[in-house]
Amino acid sequence: MRTLLVDDEHFVRKGLLLTVPWKQYGFEIIGEAENGLKALDLLQHTAIDVLFTDLTMPKMNGFELMKKVKEDYPGIQIVVLTCHQEFDYAIEALQIGAIDYLVKTQIEEGKVEAALERISKRIQADAKQRAEVQSNADATAGWDLAIVPRTSGVDLSMMGFETATQTKPFHDDSWIVSHHGYDNWQALHVFWERNGLYASWMPVVIPMAKEQGYPGKREWHDFLEYDVFYAYRSDHPLPFIYKKAEDAGKHAVVQSDVERLRSTFHTLKWLFDDHSYMEWIGMVEAKAPAAGEVRRMVADSLEALQNVQGISDELRVLINSLNSITWHGLCALLAHLRKQLMNSEYPPETCLSIYRALLLIHTEVAEDLNQENVAQRVALSRSYFSQCFRPLVGMSFHELLTHMRIKKAAALLAGSSLYIYEIAEQTGFNDEKYFSRVFKQHKGMLPKDYRESARLLQQ
């Protein structure tokens, strides 16, 4: 991949050129520039595939350069060079179209290989998807359209389809659209983008061969769980091309690897340590477990961390929508979460202990927990734990424990047929009457009334 380096610091550029094993990961450095203006001059007469750019530069900064490149050279992939102190800028750059970022301290510490491998794979996956769209979907006939919901409660009527005559249910809540009326994939993409449909529905082009028919349930499930999950990007979406996997066992992942990924994530070290964060991301992309497994391995930690004081409502919405999030969306969510949690006035070690306490409470909510034994398990004295807990969480230990128990009880009431006394036991209440009283204090109604109300809403 023909690569251009842009950084205003001469020694940084030379360090990148001399110390990073570019060719080992498919990059060929064919130019360098000290600012955005110089980079644009080079692009006028030099073919480039990948642009590595700093963000804070004189004359034309990285954001301005990104905007011009996206407008004039949309085929170029952009990777951001950033420092730990400028991590906020990297997040912003990802939101406006950078495919990934490289932390400069990783280069200085000789830990750049995993990041380069991740970046290379992302660029190649993105290029492969775009090439498949271009080559397989240009025909004016011979392909059918499937649409996959990206959020719950989306309405087919917003696309102008007549539900009864043009759509039929398909696997995994997807739909097949007959007589879709799109002459080619470009027309489909323009319509989707113009009407803001990518936020709710993902279009999938299914090249039709008479002898093959539609994908089976297992084939379609694997396509969504692997191909779509890892390749879909909400910042520049395109229609997907369905392609049957030639190797039925290609997605097999050893369960011990999944458990290792889960336990690594639950340490929460990745919140404050860039290397741990990038290492975990690289491990997931190398092993590529199914979407459901990835979502499950992060769910407990993220649901617990949303109780931290200062987490934005926007981030809480994303955390509560994990069942529809893609890999790219999850990486963006984690980056935002790290950014918000790094702003604490308490030392990272203290924050990490409190956050681990939140995870412990979340996963053991039915157990006999108290402030003393939880503080001991996260290696803090009881007095210091109490001193830090409320400022970081926004409520006392007892209030948070009760909040988590009531939240889980509400979910069980709405989504299960367990008896109320069983739900009380599973949420840490040994007495059903006490449970009902506390539940009413928090939800304004008794558990049985809450269950009935939830069932009526679901009808």
Automatic annotation (TrEMBL):
Any one GO biological process: phosphorelay signal transduction system
Mark the residues carrying the PTM 4-aspartylphosphate: 54
Name the UniProt key words of this record, in alphabetical order.
DNA-binding, Phosphoprotein, Transcription, Transcription regulation
Chain ranges of the Response regulatory domain:
2-119
Gene Ontology molecular function, alphabetical: DNA-binding transcription factor activity; sequence-specific DNA binding
> Residue ranges of the HTH araC/xylS-type domain?
355-453
InterPro entries noted in UniProt: CheY-like_superfamily, Homeodomain-like_sf, HTH_AraC, HTH_AraC-typ_CS, Sig_transdc_resp-reg_receiver, Tscrpt_reg_AraC-type_HTH
Database matches in PANTHER family: ARAC-FAMILY TRANSCRIPTIONAL REGULATOR, HTH-TYPE TRANSCRIPTIONAL REGULATOR EXSA
Protein name as catalogued: Response regulator
Originating species: Paenibacillus albus
Highest lineage ranks of the organism?
Bacteria, Bacillati, Bacillota, Bacilli, Bacillales
